[in-house]
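hey so i finally got around to running the thing on that chain from the lab meeting. sorry it took forever, my laptop kept dying and i had to restart like 3 times. anyway pasting the input first so we r on the same page abt which one it is
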Amino acid sequence: MHVSTESAIARLHQAGDGDTLGGRIWRARDAAKLSTKDLASKLGVRSETISSWERDRAEPRANRLFMLAGVLGVTPVWLIAGVGRGPDEETAEPPQNQLRKQLDLIKKLHAQTGEAIATLELEIERADQEED
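ok and heres what got predicted. didnt touch it at all, straight out
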């Protein structure tokens, strides 16, 4: 199966929800019914920092991102990539089923990435052989 780099990237984009990190932070904060001041207090940052994150003018460091996900009740993967269940969706199934679905999706994306890498390696090999 021949997978172009562009189609591999397009597949990765299709997996997400189309929003930005800032938009997802805002949606999760809104769903948790927290003000920027309340969220900032829980995270030990200033309200202005939360506002900058929500406007995509800055991004939280990894440790803050994980704290943020925990406080907002979402996964870091959802915050970063919009993959999985968002905070405003109904939770009708047990959390372990949701985690299994997320794991299956990540495994699928991993396999697709592997295919894209293999295809690129073949193309490079062919190009090198043509030059010789």
